[in-house]
Design brief:
about 525 residues, alpha/beta
């Protein structure tokens, strides 16, 4: 019987899915047997013969020949008169094999058989995929982007559709259909819809581990061991390594000549920054190295707490390095050392500072707790941050961050403001008050401009005369020193009583006689 319409398409599928011929034959025999049982109630008297090369299926109905009127089971027995019609040589007791056409089962039965056959092929495919990719768990596979969906990528690998969910993709990476991508097999699910689901990931630590094994021969050979990897995909990662050969530097082996080895890993992971650190068995040394590039001064651990905590003191100018952008450095260090790390700034004995808890009367506890989470345990630690950095690291909006800065800065600026205010008031009082006393200010005479010039001129004349007339006695200089004072006292009176003095001075100059001003010169 030719029945290629029933099995041709499934034979092609089986060939593509690498299903063995014997397995396919058993499947088809089971499907035909199900059709027979549904129609006849039993398939004991039937035999199915399948030729996978040509797609031929034969269904033979085998019955025993009985005498007329003695037939009790029409499925397993046939009367002699009906057997003779098939072959005249049949006698009672013989077995008659008659061929049954698939069309005799009806169209509905044939459609059911096709669906059953398809489902059986899917089950075998799922089992095959599950066994294949279960052996590849944690290994790198390379595939082509087959389809891009909002929440996942579909990647084709050896004609198998792999799934990369959004959560397993590196943030910021962009792919196009047809791009090649490398990822690590993370999960394999047997019963997920029509076929087994293979989940691949680019954010798992195993991907970085496999990339190091590919790029660093010492790791592949077991000379250098990767102790632990922690990462925030696409941003930063920390790796601790140890060497089993004292002649091999583990960090240098991973970095390579001019960084060629580690740069290959960085490029594959979308320029993710990688810190390679030597491993340490002492948790204090491990925490100190994990906080790189900061250089802690002191590390104290408390193993009796749950989870264990570590208190780290770093120099004042390295607090931001220890915490990292958005706290990423301290988070990775905590995961690497498996300790909750609290970073404190080293404060000199003579340096004035205020604990952040002391601002509880001015700031809500939620804000204080958030500042402590980012390592700002004192007021000076907060003031070292710019307003933009405070907003970014704490998540506060601009108004809250600005209010926090104002409250903290006021703690240190308030005494200086009062002192400046007092100095300003004193200067204003000095500017308002005259140099002399009140009575002297009221009685001081106001002199015309011309009279002032005469007084100055007479004073200069007396001083000049003192310089020109040398004296040998001690009394003479005393009299000359008192002369300017007498000139100042008499000059205003002379100017007031003799108004014609100004007119006579120019006349004497015209006649050739030197005036008092010329003598002074």
């Amino acid at each position: 019987m030719q029945s290629s319409n029933l099995v041709d398409s499934f034979t092609e599928i089986a060939r593509e899915k690498d299903i063995e011929r014997d397995t396919l034959q058993l499947i088809i025999e089971d499907v035909i047997g199900a059709m027979i049982r549904k129609r006849y109630g039993s398939d004991e008297a039937f035999e199915v013969i399948f030729n996978p090369d040509h797609g031929d299926i034969q269904v033979l109905h085998i019955r025993e020949v009985v005498s007329d009127m003695d037939m009790e089971d029409p499925v397993n027995e046939i009367e002699i008169k009906n057997a003779v019609e098939i072959d005249p040589d049949f006698v009672v007791g013989d077995e008659v094999a008659s061929e049954i056409s698939i069309d005799e089962f009806g169209r509905r039965a044939v459609m059911t058989a096709q669906q059953t056959l398809q489902q059986r092929l899917r089950d075998i495919e799922k089992e095959h995929i599950y066994e294949k990719y279960s052996k590849l768990m944690g290994e790198i596979v390379a595939g082509e982007i087959h389809q891009i969906r909002p929440n996942k990528l579909l990647v084709m690998h050896d004609n198998v559709e792999l799934v990369m969910p959004r959560s397993e993709q590196i943030r910021g990476e962009r792919f196009r259909k047809g791009d090649m991508v490398r990822a690590v097999v993370k999960e394999v699910h047997r019963d997920r819809g029509k076929r087994s689901q293979v989940v691949i990931s680019r954010t798992d630590e195993q991907l970085m581990e496999r990339l190091f094994e590919i790029e660093v021969p010492e790791i592949h050979d077991g000379i250098v061991e990767l102790k632990k990897i922690v990462r925030e995909p696409g941003n930063r990662a920390k790796v601790t390594v140890v060497s089993h050969d004292e002649r091999v530097d583990p960090v240098g082996a991973c970095v390579g000549m001019k960084g060629v080895r580690i740069h290959a890993v960085v490029r594959e992971l979308d320029n993710e920054n990688i810190d390679v650190l030597p491993h340490a068995d002492d948790p204090r040394d491990l925490i100190s190295r994990a906080l790189s590039p900061a250089n802690p001064i002191n590390v104290e651990i408390k193993d009796d707490l749950d989870p264990p905590r570590a208190t780290v003191v770093v120099p004042e100018d390295e607090v931001s390095r220890a915490i990292g952008s958005g706290g990423i450095n301290i988070r990775l260090a905590s995961r690497l050392a498996e300790y909750e790390i609290d970073v404190y700034r080293d404060i000199a004995a003579d340096e004035e500072d205020v604990e952040i808890e002391e601002f509880a009367d001015a700031l809500p506890m939620s804000i204080i707790d958030r500042l402590q989470e980012i390592g700002c345990d004192t007021a000076k630690a907060v003031m070292e941050l710019s307003l933009d950095e405070l907003e970014r690291r704490t998540g506060f909006d601009s108004e809250v961050a600005e209010g926090v800065m104002i409250v903290i800065e006021a703690e240190f600026e308030e005494p200086e403001e009062f002192e400046g205010l007092e100095m300003a008031e004193i200067e204003e009082e000095e500017e308002v008050a005259p140099e002399g006393s009140g009575e002297e200010a009221e009685t001081a005479p106001v002199q015309p401009e011309g009279e002032t010039d005469v007084e100055e001129a007479s004073t200069e004349t007396e001083v000049t005369s003192e310089e020109e007339e040398p004296t040998g006695e001690d009394a003479a200089p005393v009299e000359d020193a008192e002369a300017p004072d007498r000139a100042q006292e008499t000059a205003p009176a002379a100017a007031t009583d003799e108004p014609d003095a100004e007119e006579t001075t120019p006349a004497s100059a015209e006649e050739g006689e030197p005036s008092s001003e010329e003598k002074a010169v």
